[in-house]
Structure formats: structure tokens, C-alpha cells
Design goal:
mainly alpha; 4 helices
């Protein structure tokens, strides 16, 4: 168990979502700066808001570490969902 976890649940969710969004940007290799920013913001928001989905899916007890892990997993996965959505939106704005 980590000894210096943030105590505020919102800070924990933001920390996990930030780590997940950064990991997604590193592994996804976005095509442009606009694509990178869109994916990052989408992943950060999704990880912060929907952190409970992986926690409930895996049947974890909600505690500080699981809240961070849930936000991280959700942000990492949401970035891949954002890719096709952002490409579709960019294509619509160019047309």
C-alpha cells in the first residue's frame, strides 16, 4: 500500500485520470496536435467522471488505491474511444 496517497477523492480521481491520459498519449501516437489535445481532454474527463466502472466491473472494494486505478484504466481506455470520434468531428469540420 502506498503511504502518501492524496486523501481527497477528487484529487485521487484526477491523479489516476491524468496518469491514464498521459499513458494513452504515449502509446497512441496521435496524428496531430489537435488530435492529441482532444484525446487527452476526453480521457481526462472520462477517467475523472467514470472511474467507478472498472472498479465495479472487477468487483473491487472502493478504497483510495482502487479509485486511482479505476480512473487510470478508464482514462487509458477512453482515449481509444475518442480517436474515431475526434477523426469524425475533424472530417465534418473540413467538409
Amino acid at each position: 500500500m502506498m503511504e502518501k496517497l492524496p486523501t481527497d477523492p477528487l484529487v485521487q480521481k484526477l491523479f489516476g485520470a491524468l496518469l491514464g491520459a498521459i499513458a494513452h498519449i504515449i502509446y497512441s501516437n496521435p496524428k496531430s496536435l489537435k488530435d492529441m489535445i482532444g484525446r487527452f481532454v476526453f480521457a481526462l474527463i472520462a477517467g475523472t467522471v467514470l472511474y467507478f466502472i472498472p472498479v465495479e466491473f472487477f468487483g473491487w472494494v472502493m478504497d483510495d488505491e482502487r479509485r486511482i486505478a479505476g480512473a487510470l484504466l478508464m482514462a487509458f481506455g477512453a482515449g481509444y474511444v475518442a480517436g474515431p470520434i475526434i477523426r469524425w468531428m475533424v472530417a465534418k469540420t473540413k467538409a
